[in-house]
Specification:
- The protein is of the alpha/beta class.
- 28% of the residues lie in helices and 14% in strands.
- The strands form 6 sheets. Strands 2-5-6-9-8-10-11-12-13 form a 9-stranded mixed beta sheet, with helices on both faces. A two-stranded antiparallel ribbon has the order 1-7.
- Strand 10, helix 3 and strand 11 form a beta-alpha-beta unit.
- It is globular and about 75 Å long.
- The chain starts with 20 loop residues before the first helix and ends in a 13-residue tail after the last strand.
- The relative contact order is 0.15.
- One of its GO terms (molecular function) is metal ion binding.
- Pfam families: Tannase.
- InterPro entries: AB_hydrolase_fold, Tannase/feruloyl_esterase.
- Keywords: Calcium, Disulfide bond, Hydrolase, Metal-binding, Serine esterase, Signal.
- This is Chlorogenate esterase.
């Protein structure tokens, strides 16, 4: 069940995270058994978890007067009541609420002469659920995104509609300061983690001023960089929150950004037009890749439905040089040049330095490679957004602003070894980028667990920038550290989903609702039911939902390492699936030999009646003459077919097979070789 690239990516992680492979395998196997059997691997031995009391509703007591709210280093700019119906979401009105805008820690930088502050807004519903939500935003921040609490794709009820008091911030710099805020040391730290730590106590006090009491429960959620903020908060500020919902978390963002630039350089090697990465991997190429992935991996989960649910098994059986058609003999359609396949295989295996040291992790093979978003991140953002982040925020010393005139040139000419090393070096902020941007001691969730807090992590299998392989590997390490990890943190992967949302996927699910049920009611999410957003979806249509799917197709999102597996019934509804163990590690079925056809006997005329001759012995085979062997088909790529049977005995059998001579034989998740062939 382990999920890692065939490299030493983990060598840069905290030493506390490195448990022996034996323990790692045992923990992952135990977690899988626990999920299938319906319990936790060591629930009986774990101390009883604290239970958070449910939130109680309240009513807004003031709005205009909040302009006089007082908190250290805080300025309130405005407080005004927003009437019900001024905003809508999913066809329903957003209720009446108080909008408060302000800023914290305003200062004049002695580095670049810019005025910096942590800008924020809060939306406080008149009918309050007693809950607080920190809406962590994405990208390089710099904008106060409206604080509606919209976290996931096509959310049918946003946080404000659910009664949350919602906070949103710019993380310490404004839109006109992007990306050059990286010249200022404090702005780097605010972006990394200090804005969350600064804003949270203020927000709770502001809530108390608005409702005459503070929040009963507090949550933080976000996608992409917002998912990173949420993962960081789970270790730095676990005592301030009860629930955490990171979606597509870029929690190793500096590594991913350097890997993006490395990838741009790989693609440029095979670009028909230098600097135009879209000419290296065209839309038609990506459709061909997606078709090859589906041909090989789609039916492994029991149903050929255009979705690869069993990503672990696909990682084992999909081989790009073999399975993707190469253009030979002058062919140009439904194929890729061999050199393009080789680059693709390298990129999917994960970025490495010139010496072969891992920079970032691998990416899974998923049909969502055909998604527009996958190409946007891999082929466009790698030439514009990532060079800005690496050049101005993650490098020890910021680059000259002159590189803004030619960001693609900077990306394609960057010294990857230097950039990969630089994110670990102390920067102008007094901390390295890997210190101020990532969760410290990232698998230490003691405070989260011991206070009764819960975390639900969601990641799309076709994310083009932050790899779900990285997220799964993190969960594996958490499972090593905690035998009862499943009791307080669960990870759900969404087949086909692009970065945060979209793609050929069932990307609409109620993550916030599931988190509330777990935190406040003790109802752990055994599955999340996710829907496609086809024509007529009130949360917004997803144009990439395939035409041959039901517009409202549903699938269960299963807690890793289990996967959605078809059982029986309507293939368009989630109830026809169950969460079962991956087929990872099972032998591929050999094609059955076709029997030789039995020749029809020749029709002969009836012989004339003649006297029977005397019987004489017939010829006998020579003693050394071998009997003929049955004829079989020549070796061909294995055809995949769904396997039936009871998954529990199969999984137990797999576990027993791994226990060999007192040790454990480990097969790492999604191991890839660097380079085709």
């Amino acid at each position: 069940m382990l999920r890692s690239a065939d490299n030493d990516f983990g060598a840069h992680l905290n030493e506390e995270d490195h448990v022996s492979k034996t323990l790692h395998g045992a923990a992952a196997l135990g977690a899988a058994l626990a999920l299938i059997l319906g319990g936790s691997a060591a629930a009986a031995a774990a101390p009883p978890a604290a239970q958070v009391d449910p939130a109680a509703p309240g009513t807004l007591t003031q709005c205009d007067g909040l302009v006089d709210f007082s908190f250290e280093s805080t300025t309130i700019d405005a407080a005004e009541l927003v009437p019900a119906g001024e905003f809508e979401n999913a066809g329903a009105a957003v209720g009446e609420h108080c909008l408060v805008t302000g800023r914290m820690n305003e200062r004049l930088s002695d580095v670049d002469g810019q005025t910096y502050a942590i800008g924020f807004e809060m939306r406080l519903p008149t009918d309050w659920a007693g809950r607080f939500l920190y809406q962590a935003n994405g990208g390089m921040d710099g904008n106060v995104v409206p604080a509606f609490g919209a976290i996931t794709g096509g959310q049918l009820e946003n946080g404000l509609q659910m009664g949350f008091a919602v906070l949103s911030s710019d993380a310490g710099h404004g839109p006109d300061q992007n990306p050059l805020f990286g010249l200022d040391p404090q702005a780097r730290l605010d972006y990394g983690y200090q804005a969350v730590g600064t804003l949270t106590p203020m927000a709770k006090d502001l809530i108390a001023a608005a409702y005459d009491r503070g929040p009963d429960t507090s949550y933080i959620a976000g996608g992409s960089n917002g998912g990173r903020h949420t993962m960081v908060a789970a270790t730095r500020y676990a005592d301030l929150y009860d629930g955490f919902l990171p979606v597509a978390p870029g929690f190793h963002l500096p590594q991913a950004a350097v890997a993006q630039i490395w990838g741009a350089q790989q693609w440029n090697e095979v670009a028909e037009t230098a600097g135009d990465l879209r000419s290296a991997l065209t839309d038609a190429h990506r459709e061909t890749i997606a078709t090859a992935v589906l041909d090989r991996c789609d039916a492994v989960d029991g149903l050929a439905d255009g979705m690869v649910q069993d990503a672990d098994r696909c990682a084992e059986i999909f081989e790009a040089p073999r399975d993707i058609p190469s253009c030979v003999g002058g062919a140009t359609e439904n194929c890729l040049p061999e050199e393009t396949i080789a680059v693709l295989d390298r990129v999917m295996a994960g970025a490495v330095t010139s010496g072969g040291e891992a920079i970032y992790t691998s990416f899974p093979w998923d049909a969502g490679i055909a998604n527009d978003g996958w190409a946007g991140w891999k082929l466009d953002a790698s030439m514009m957004l990532d060079p800005m982040a690496v050049g101005f925020v993650f490098s020890p010393q910021p680059e000259s602003p002159e590189i803004l005139a030619d960001l693609p040139g900077y990306a394609l000419g960057a010294d990857i070894d230097e950039k990969a090393a630089g994110i670990w070096e102390e920067s102008i902020a007094g901390e390295s980028a890997m210190e101020f941007m990532t969760p410290p001691d990232e698998t230490n969730l003691d405070v989260l667990r011991d206070t009764g807090s819960k975390m639900i992590v969601v990641h799309g299998a076709a994310d083009g920038v932050f790899s779900p392989d990285d997220t799964a590997a993190w969960y594996d390490r958490v499972s090593e550290a905690y035998a009862d990890a499943n009791d307080f943190v669960r990870y759900f992967e969404v087949a086909g989903m692009a970065h945060v949302s979209g793609g050929a996927a069932t990307d609409q699910f109620d993550g916030l609702g599931a988190l509330i049920d777990w935190v406040e009611n003790g109802q752990a999410p055994d599955t999340l039911v996710a829907s496609a957003r086809g024509a007529g979806n009130p949360g917004g249509e997803n144009a990439e939902v395939p035409a041959d799917w039901a517009a409202d197709r549903t699938r269960p999102l299963c807690p890793y390492p289990t996967v959605a597996t078809y059982t029986e019934g309507d293939p368009e509804v989630a109830s026809s699936f169950t969460c079962a163990a991956s087929a990872e590690g099972t032998p591929e079925p050999e094609p059955a030999p076709e029997p030789e056809p039995t020749p029809e006997p020749e029709e002969t005329p009836e012989p004339e009646q003649t006297p029977e001759p005397e019987q004489t012995p017939g010829p006998t085979p020579a003693p050394d003459e071998p009997s003929p062997e049955p004829t079989t088909q020549p070796d061909e790529p294995d055809e995949l077919s769904p396997t039936g049977g009871d998954t529990v005995p199969a999984l137990v059998g797999t576990g027993l097979a791994l226990l060999v001579a007192g040790g454990i034989v480990i097969a790492s998740r999604r191991i890839r070789s660097h380079g085709a062939g």
